[in-house]
Amino acid sequence: MYTLYYMPSACSLATHVVLRELGQDVNLIDREQASNFSDINPVGSVPVLTDGDNTLTEGVAILMHLFDKHKSSMLPEESAARQKAIRDILFANATMHPAYGKLFFIGQRISDESAKTEAYTAAAEAINNLWNVVEGRLNDGTFLGGDTPSAADIMLTVYSRWGAYHPVDITFGPKTTKLLAAVQDMPNFKKSVEAEAVASAK
């Protein structure tokens, strides 16, 4: 069984959903409830996954480890489809995730209200531009990978929920809205959100 260190609704939720989609049992530990988390990951970030004696950090590295062990349509084996799936995963992790991360930085670190409003506006504009990129890539089906959800679809859906925590106007195109609704309607997405809430309440 895998052990996943997480924070509710954080990017670790995507790893959790992927684990369930792969049919893997997972023991959940809320980072805030782990007395030694700084020893487990000195960076302090989630997700962290333990697989036996192996402790993995960094979301994409964890996903690639899981897909190496458990073959899945979320990371196709055919060369062109695999290359596209990896591109989409990296877009989600290295481009969209940091763009949303700026919202949290603004909320926590900028005290001047005028400067904060200006920063939020600029950050929201950048995020909306990225969602336009996603909209443009949704040509062949509901999901970035076509007719079945990919890891990137799950990651992007997790990030899309973060705008609600900030005074910003994030907009999604019709195809993106369909994608996000479809992922959030996945049984394993719902189960993961519920399981994290229960585990954190203990």
Can you offer a commentary on this structure?
This protein is 58% helix and 9% strand. The chain has 2 domains: 2-72 and 187-201, Glutaredoxin, CATH 3.40.30; 79-184, Glutathione S-transferase Yfyf (Class Pi), Chain A, domain 2 (Up-down Bundle). With 202 residues, it is an alpha+beta fold. It has 8 helices and 4 strands. The mean pLDDT is 96. The chain has a 4-stranded mixed β-sheet. The chain has helices spanning 12-21, 37-40, 59-69, 79-109, 113-137, 151-160, 174-184, 187-201; strands at residues 2-6, 26-30, 48-51, 54-57.
Features:
58% helix, 4 strands, 8 helices, single chain, alpha+beta, Glutaredoxin, 2 domains, 202 residues, Glutathione S-transferase Yfyf (Class Pi), Chain A, domain 2, four-stranded mixed beta sheet
Order of helices and strands: EHEHEEHHHHHH
Low-confidence stretches: none
Mean pLDDT: 96
Q: Name the structural class.
A: alpha+beta
* Strand portion: 5-15%
Radius of gyration, rounded? 17 Å
What's the number of domains?
A: 2
Under CATH, the topology of the largest domain is which?
Glutathione S-transferase Yfyf (Class Pi), Chain A, domain 2
Helix content estimate: 55-70%
List the strand order in the largest sheet.
2-1-3-4
CATH class of the largest domain: Mainly Alpha
Shape: globular
The CA-CA distance between the termini, in Å, is 20 Å
Main sheet overview? 4 strands, mixed
Number of strands: 4
Quickly give the CATH architecture of the largest domain.
Up-down Bundle
Q: How many DSSP H or I helices?
A: 8
